[in-house]
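Q: My labmate handed me this sequence with no annotations at all. I'd like to see what the chain might look like in three dimensions before we decide whether it's worth expressing. Could you predict it?
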Amino acid sequence: MHSDVSWQRFKQFPRLMWIFLFGSFITRGSYYMVWPFLAVILYEKFALSATEVGMVLSSAAIISVFTSFVGSSLSDRIGRHKLMYLTGILYIISFSLLAEANSVEGYVIVMTLCSMATSLWRPLTSAAIGDIIADPKTRELAMQSLYFIVNVGCAVGPMLGVWLGLTGKQSSFYLTAVAFAVLLALLYWGFNHQTRQDVALAAGASSNDNLSDATSGTESDGASDGENDMTSDGVNRGENGLSSDVEVSMKKAAVVSRKQIVAILLQDKLLQCLIFANILCMFIYAQMDSSLIQYLTRAGAPDLLTLISGMIFTNAMVIISTQFLLLKLMARFPLVKRIQIGLLLLICSQIWLAFNPLDLFWGWIGAIVVMSVAETILFPTMNVHIDRLAPDHLRGAYFGAASFYDLGFALAPLGGGIILDHFGGQWLFLTGAALSVLVIYLYSILDRLPRPDFAMFKAD
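A: Here is what I predict for the chain of 460 residues:
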């Protein structure tokens, strides 16, 4: 299916989608004014070693990986609206506390709360977009737009922070708390509007059913149960006013038992190898957010805050400016080939980082450009790869298993800190290059690995 980027598609976005986009921009922009500088704050405030800083960052991230599973199941039971409100309140509380934390223990506890809120919020937003937009092409454009606007926030936030003199200041976390308060108010307005539409739609559907019963009798009962109504804003609704996507996902969830899902995932050696390869890939990428900043801080790089903000800005701008162009250029290559091209660029960036002189400002920026182009190729392709591997009735389970990629991000600060303390910055990036070669090899053997017989796991 080809992407359809047009103004008509954008006009099909419901009001709630525009709220998600605006909210993502203000929250990510304020978030990136200070979160990437936590390693600097912990080092300067408490004189922690690189390993200790890595342990603080990793412990919070590891907990958040498993929190996302809990959040996904809770959203189906108590409703996404309620859980989004609760998660937003957790964001406000945790970032307000982070602005006042004054001990290592306090940072660990509050950063864990922040990471839990982040891990809950992301899947909730993605699931909510699926609930409110039924058309596949419009939904794809909505997902691409969300990824785009998040990177715009990542680009604007650090540079705006430098301009305002807020970058790296602990008190800046209050801005993120305020941004989420604004977003919650907008969501309350947006959800109420959506609910009123659902009520009106349900009333209209009820009137149509009564009219149908009066004119055609009970013969139409079976057919009317399967019909869906499309609202004016592109929201497809089924019976009881629920999104058709929600109804379909609930039916699919009942297709295969949890025990069968676990059996399938354990038998799919290709998937296991893919997850391991992508954990390594994420481990390499996450060094830019943690260990690279630690290295530059401890080595005394000149214009440190400007350099860090410049790297974050460059990373986001490269993704924004090349995302759709690379998608078109890479379309003719098989998925695995695209990933291998991205990994080769990743190797080049790691070698560049390893040998770049400490005081060569634009050298660091150049390495990040290459690394960002690799990211733009790799990250979307990884999701498409999982989508093609997953059977239709197990799509949710496969994407759930793929969330273990985040273990690479979670372990990166600790692993990178240990390498920095014992071997130095150059070896950190050379290790990243070596791991990239290993990932290329793992991708090259995927097609030779066994997969389960999915027909054996169909519903009774």
